[in-house]
């Protein structure tokens, strides 16, 4: 089941599971020391796939300086290879089209997933840069009509 909720509608269990998965992957597995939870969580729309009560895939979407962005895109290791990552991007783009129509889209993606986002119409802008010890790339997508 796919779930799409603003922060204030998340249950405490959903919030815990989201933060646990994000910290597990982006801090522990990737060995990055940074403030994983930030104020963008408060204004974000949270998109996630539930499988047997577990979060299998997750991302957050929010407006930033007149543009829409998304991030913290993750599939739990035990659910990889099942198509949830691509389905997650589809749900992200549908949510952007519905909730942020005609708004420019920009992301900062980890370099290893640049080609995945290109398959969804994202265009790379500029050179790679280091963000929290990890190579990233800026990417843009044309606004989606509502």
UniProtKB/TrEMBL annotation:
PROSITE patterns: GNAT. Residues 5-144 form the N-acetyltransferase domain. The keyword rRNA processing does not apply. It comes from Lentilactobacillus hilgardii (strain ATCC 8290 / DSM 20176 / CCUG 30140 / JCM 1155 / KCTC 3500 / NBRC 15886 / NCIMB 8040 / NRRL B-1843 / 9). It holds the Pfam family Acetyltransf_10. One of its GO terms (molecular function) is acyltransferase activity, transferring groups other than amino-acyl groups. This is Acetyltransferase, GNAT family. It comes from the Bacteria. The keyword Plastid does not apply. Keywords: Transferase.
